Amino acid sequence: MQSTLVALVEDKPGVLTRVASLFRRRNYNIESLTVGHTENPGVSRMTIVVDSSRTNVEKVAQNLYKLVNVIKVEDVTEQPTVLRDLALIKVQADGGSRRSEIMQLVDTFRARVVDVALDSLMVEVTGTEDKIDGLVDVLRPYGIIEMVRTGRVAMARGKSGNGHK
Amino acid sequence: MKKTGAEIVWAMLEHEGVEVAFGIPGGTIMHTYHPRRHYGVHHVLVRHEQCAAHAADGYARASGKVGVAIATSGPGATNLVTGIATAMMDSSPIVCITGQVSTPVIGTDAFQEVDITGITLPITKHNYLVADVEELAEVIHEAFYIARSGRPGPVLIDIPKDVQQKSTEFEYPDDDVDLPGYHPVGKGDADLVAKAAQLINQAERPVILAGQGVMMSGAMDLLRAFAEKTDTPVAFTLLGKGGFPESHPLALSLMGMHGEVFTNRAIQQADLLLGFGMRFDDRVTGRLDAYAPFAQKIHVDMDAAELNKVVKADVAIHGDLRQVLEQLLPLTLPNEHAMWLERIAEWRAQSHKRDIINRPENGHLVAAHFINEIWEATEGQAVVVTDVGQHQMWAAQYYPTSYPRQFITSGGQGTMGFGLPAAIGAQIARPDKEVWLIAGDGGFQMTMHDLATIVQERLPIRIAISNNHYLGMVRQWQEFFYDKNYEATRLLNPDFVKLAEAYGIPAWRAKNRRQAREAIAAARACNGPALIDFEIANTGDEANVYPMVPAGAALHEMIERPTYVATDYKSLTSHQVEQVPVMDTVLA
Ligand SMILES: Cc1ncc(C[n+]2csc(CCOP(=O)(O)OP(=O)(O)O)c2C)c(N)n1
Ligand SMILES: [Mg+2]
Which among B278, B356, B421, B489 is least surrounded, fewest beta carbons within 10 Å? Predict the structure, then answer.
């Protein structure tokens, strides 16, 4: 079971270390953690995916609140939420029919080829983790040379903002 | 007005109401020491930075104000670590100021560079590395606010040498701090408070578990009003001692591992527990699955992360205890629990019979004796500071308190060596009070170098060494649970009387009750510090702290105090685990 927490934090040096240190100190199991800027300068946003079968999500949120630089924490697991992961996948594609097969798969998954080399293609795909896992599965037989995934980012649907001034 | 970083430090300390700072100078903090004499902050030179942190902590616990410790970078800073961890666990507000190597060389392994903000990240409430002199005043202001507000705790400020040297236009910061993510809680949720009131009004066998939060929120008078109105007995945690007068008819005793049997019984048989500003530490609950099996639980704490952490509460209220009690009081009905209190009184009478203090004289000196003598001599009014071990538990058992911040001890970390420096802080915070340090012979030797500080500061601290020539608490566990294999616990001690005299401190040795009484009177007659080496019994049942809930046992599975046959001390029954029935038939 996974839960998704969205945390707004002050954009100050060391905040990521504080959050990471908290997870280690309290023995929390974290599946992924992403950080990025928000619409507010000075505020960063973290999306934290927690293995809720092994870690008490409420305690994660309460302990995050104890960090002075953490402004707001929300568990969006039960809310209608857009969840996205982004992956760059470099696949072997040395000409011939394999190349066009891969292009077709990429189309089907609404992914994009972002770089072409003689014997490889770089694919960019955004979507839920399931969708990306699906693409990775079908690309694997062609030979994945390199892959990077950003980890999950999340935003609740609808008009409501994140509540920060 | 232009000020250097160093001057800003002192100006801000003055501004925050700091009267005293404890520390040791060194290369990266000397610059800050230099202008001190122009400011109204007294500096106490300790002999080890661990003592600076503990003294600041002791000062904070005795006064309720923020304590301040100062150290140089590298080893000075790392020496603070034990003291910071101790303050963190016991929610004590201290601000530690450390020097750091100059900003251009941070990260180069410069002489005496250490990443103290990294090291103290998990043991501070918050910490800062000041990158620019422009932000220094604001950081200090924030640090004090964070340390003392909400659930208090230690804050560290690491100031590079060049930041101390640089000048800037200085102005006192606004009173308000700009911390968008920091909002200490006030009132509790009204619906939850109403629900709690309902449980309270229906309870037949309620017990209040009073923690340090009672004192931190200043709820002593309200706790008393609440207990009296609802006729609810009050047990306390080690750090909760002082939050409720122990002479009050509704006062129980310390709870948990070395709590009195009657108190632990009351908890086990209660139908409602009210956890007020405490955190259900494992030393308090014993085995969790057998903890207070008949009780519904109400838990009030200002740290949401403590609620439902250990014990699942039926009503968990996130709020400041004082404000929650203000909300609760009008909703509770005046009540009487005569039968329940009578039952507890019977158990209390049984406990008293077993109490070593009520045993006929056999010539031996035990800690209960000398602590009781100190209590009588000081009419229960002294500030008592302890170290960690058996004597700490005996002090908690045999020095009943009557006012808040009277009993100062390291609970959550159980830090040996805490006592002496904490007593320094406490005596400076309370010059109006007689301060007694009760320390073990083991822990005393961990920080005894600061006897020099006591003398240098002319502090009239009375030091009682509970000398059993053992790391007694560990020895007790070895006796009970490790086949009496006394591995590494026997202590060959210096002559503490001569040692004290070397520092110019008058000292006495007491080996029996009469000598103890005389030595206490002599020590109290000194107008400076004094030390007494109490040579206490260290064999047989007299060597151990009773009652005891063994680790992993339930609160009702206590090793009770041994029973004594008045005429024959040779036939002392050795300890045995006595199963107190989980539920009294009378109450079931
Ligand atoms: C710094 C530190 N080291 C070790 C311990 C483990 N410990 C707990 S109690 C104790 C024995 C204390 O002996 P002493 O100071 O003589 O007090 P006594 O128990 O004999 O009264 C020890 C070693 C500790 N709590 N703190
Ligand atoms: Mg000892």
Answer: B489
For the record, the structure tokens of B543 come out as 């060597």
Terminal-residue alpha carbon distance, chain A = 32
Rounded to a whole number of angstroms, the distance from the CA of B240 to the nearest CA of chain A is: 23
Contacts of A162 (CB under 8 A, 6+ apart): A6, A8, A38, A45, A72, A74
B129, B181, B308 ranked by CB distance to A69: nearest:
B181
Closest CA to B320 of B243, B218, B180: B218
Question: Rounded distance, CA B298 to CA B315, Å?
Answer: 5
Q: Which CATH superfamily is domain B2-169 in?
A: Thiamin diphosphate (ThDP)-binding fold, Pyr/PP domains (3.40.50.970)
Give me the residue spans of the domains in chain B: 2-169, 190-349, 365-536
**Ligand 2 geometric centre to CA of B88 (Å):** 26
Contact partners, residue B566, CB within 8 Å, separation at least 6: B359, B360
C-alpha B528/C-alpha B285 separation (Å) is: 42
Per CATH, the homologous superfamily of domain A82-153 is ACT-like. Chain A, domain 2 (3.30.70.1150)
Domain boundaries, chain A: 2-78, 82-153
CATH topology of domain B190-349: Rossmann fold (3.40.50)
Shared fold status for A2-78 and A82-153: yes
Cα–Cα dist B514/A38, whole Å: 74
Residue B128 distance to chain A (closest CA, Å): 9
Q: Which residues of B touch A59 (CB under 8 A)?
A: 305, 309
Q: Going residue by residue through chain B (588 aa), what tens digit of pLDDT does each one get?
A: 899 999 999 999 999 999 999 999 999 999 999 999 999 999 999 999 999 999 999 999 999 999 999 999 999 999 999 999 999 999 999 999 999 999 999 999 999 999 999 999 999 999 999 999 999 999 999 999 999 999 999 999 999 999 999 999 999 998 889 999 999 999 999 999 999 999 999 999 999 999 999 999 999 999 999 999 999 999 999 999 999 999 999 999 999 999 999 999 999 999 999 999 999 999 999 999 999 999 999 999 999 999 999 999 999 999 999 999 999 999 999 999 999 999 999 999 998 888 888 888 889 999 999 999 999 999 999 999 999 999 999 999 999 999 999 999 999 999 999 999 999 999 999 999 999 999 999 999 999 999 999 999 999 999 999 999 999 999 999 999 999 999 999 999 999 999 999 999 999 999 999 999 999 999 999 999 999 999 999 998 899 999 999 988 999 999 988 876 433 333 334 444 445 555 655 554
The identity of residue B359, as a single letter, is: R
Strand partners, B2: B169
pTM summary value: 0.95
Interface test with A, best of B121, B126, B139, B179 (most A CBs within 10 A): B121
Residue A17 touches partner B, C-beta closer than 8 Å = yes
Residues of A in contact with B303 (CB under 8 A): 66
CB-based contact A68 B305, cutoff 8 Å? no
| In contact, B52 and B82? CB cutoff 8 Å | no
CATH of A2-78, one of 3.40.50.1820, 3.40.720.10, 3.30.70.260, 3.40.50.10490: 3.30.70.260
- What CATH number belongs to B365-536? 3.40.50.970
What ipTM does the predicted assembly reach? 0.90
Instruction: Tell how far CA A94 is from the center of its chain.
Output: 30
